[in-house]
Amino acid sequence: MNSNIWRTLLFHTRRFSTTSTKNAYRSFTKAALLVSGGTGVAVICYMGNFPKVHAASGVATVSKAHSKWMADSITDVEVFEQNPNDMKTKMEMMILRMQGEICKELESIDGDKKFRVDRWTREQGGGGITCVMQDGTVFEKAGVNISVVHGTLPQGAVNQMRSRGRKLQGQSLPFFAAGISAVIHPKNPHCPTIHFNYRYFEVTDETGEKEWWFGGGTDLTPYYLVKEDVVHFHKTLKAACDKHNQTFYPKFKKWCDDYFNIPHRGERRGVGGIFFDDLDYADKDELFNFLTTCAEAVIPSYVPIVQKHKNDGYSLGERQWQLLRRGRYVEFNLIYDRGTKFGLQTPGARYESILMSLPLTARWEYRHEPEVGSKEDLLLQVLREPKDWVS
Amino acid sequence: MNSNIWRTLLFHTRRFSTTSTKNAYRSFTKAALLVSGGTGVAVICYMGNFPKVHAASGVATVSKAHSKWMADSITDVEVFEQNPNDMKTKMEMMILRMQGEICKELESIDGDKKFRVDRWTREQGGGGITCVMQDGTVFEKAGVNISVVHGTLPQGAVNQMRSRGRKLQGQSLPFFAAGISAVIHPKNPHCPTIHFNYRYFEVTDETGEKEWWFGGGTDLTPYYLVKEDVVHFHKTLKAACDKHNQTFYPKFKKWCDDYFNIPHRGERRGVGGIFFDDLDYADKDELFNFLTTCAEAVIPSYVPIVQKHKNDGYSLGERQWQLLRRGRYVEFNLIYDRGTKFGLQTPGARYESILMSLPLTARWEYRHEPEVGSKEDLLLQVLREPKDWVS
């Protein structure tokens, strides 16, 4: 098998953690059958509808792509080769590529630290690749993770989906989920934190009905407000949205402001961006292309801002303010974020990957109130009353 | 009115924040009537069953006690004077006294910083006194709060109580709650963090049935394990329990280990102590006396440990480990703690008082694992497998 050759080569040239290599070559073919096992139609469709000639040309494509990934794919490449048009294959290959591109870009900006790469498998099905850089010159903590998991949805997750309006029948539902998720906390308080997450979900209910949807978003959390940076960030996201649907940006911008809210403080976490979930209307491939465009917009939306400010001077007071705002970031993630809650409730979830979103350091001062009219106060005004950045 | 004299004196001699003094002299008599308004019996009982002679002798007692409080009581002292035997009066006077004693003790140990005292009122009924010391010589952050609130229980809280087995009928239930709650984070990693909370709750359901219960506990979170300190702490709590009921300590020690659990990490927050809730059996006054003994045991259980270690030398590595453990403290409080969740859900809750439990600084490192056999690892073993400290 061709794919074995580059897999062997790769094994000797890439960084892996000890724990992560152990299970790296476990075959996922059986697992893939298991995921789709909830519906007879899906099994046939997944395993049988690609003639051998496609699979053969797939080898070259997968092999070429692989050299840019941070680690071996979660699903066995044979499954990719046999199912190049399946959305599971497309999503996993897209997130593997984006993880590679973004990690390389951040390593080149940092110039000092490299990402630690942990490839892990989940007992109940699937696994992930967690890439974390800690205590770099530019980046204090950056995590870029992918996960491709399948199995049976826990009851809590089914209820959460139903509460969002999904008509899922039954108790114990087979699911597949693939996503990329990242949080990048730079050291310099003049460089904002960015978070993004793009994901694809499939659930088969007990009537055999298969539901699928996409979700995701990118949002920015500055510590000091530089209007033109925020405008650049939002304009880049708007251009990505507009390429696919003119209604997306205004809708998803508002959704983002509503989602990243810290109700007990009456503040947003940051200056927003875009956020969406349950995207299942329109053409599936077109939605996948939209997701890809969004993921590809991460670097151009963010990197210029980091490059601009990474060498800015800052005072101890500015650093303290950054740490206080990171405390708010922790509050949002641990109290309100649906992803974190869902993650920690999922049996066999890898909590270290979920909690990599937390900053290296955070601070809580009782009743900290910035001076009226100060730069810190200026930021707070915008967090309390989200603004329109592109018109 | 006698009580007006010392109130006026006090106003000129004690520290108050600007915001807290504004509503300090609002009369609470109407509010107190409102709380008890759910049941005719309660109103009569609360306002009418103490002859004037008791009220008059109450003035002297209340007046003497007041000089040791951190601020004016939440409920008007006239209500105390008229109802000296009502559990609401007893609880509020006990927590006011304990807050005063503990704050004074901590100030004397710190020798540098004083507590900032914020007396606040809650629009929906009641209020509290939040005392916070920040960035002291010995104490990095210490909060000792009391709150005395009443009004209508939010639906979420009613459901939470029902899920614990309380048979409350109806949707919108009048309640009264009084409690003291404190978290003390010393600077030195060799001094443990302590938390305690003692509370009394009354709810009247729509059938007019009044339920009441006590809850509380004290628990210790060391960063390094000093066996004899933990034994001293547990023995002091056991002695307090044994004074009232020999079955309390073993039961409440286990409850504490079970409650302060961080399931996603498979670790307890600290080395435990005692924890209990829904204590409504036996004689009400006897349970109040038990609560009082527990609250009085806080200083003897904890202060000797702080005195012993407050000047210990420590390395940067030991400080970093302390901050990592404080990250776990934040995880427990924001994800799992019922008090924090209940607090943040309560309309009109003062989030600054609820979140004062968070440390001044915390740290999250991806996959931090102490060296096997190190002092840090020794602590982890105990957090993973709670021990018996007194036999």
From TrEMBL, chains A, B:
The enzyme's E.C. designation? 1.3.3.3
SUPFAM superfamilies tied to this protein = Coproporphyrinogen III oxidase
The alphabetical list of record keywords is: Heme biosynthesis, Oxidoreductase, Porphyrin biosynthesis
- What protein name is recorded for this chain? coproporphyrinogen oxidase
Q: Name one GO cellular component term.
A: cytoplasm
- For this entry, list what GO says about its biological process: protoporphyrinogen IX biosynthetic process
EC main class here is oxidoreductase
Pathway per its UniProt entry is:
Porphyrin-containing compound metabolism; protoporphyrin-IX biosynthesis; protoporphyrinogen-IX from coproporphyrinogen-III (O2 route): step 1/1
Organism (species):
Pinctada imbricata (Atlantic pearl-oyster)
- Family affiliation: Belongs to the aerobic coproporphyrinogen-III oxidase family.
- Pfam families attached to this UniProt entry: Coprogen_oxidas
Matching entries from Gene3D superfamilies are given as: Coproporphyrinogen III oxidase, aerobic (3.40.1500.10)
Q: How does it assemble?
A: Homodimer.
What is a GO molecular function of this protein?
A: coproporphyrinogen oxidase activity
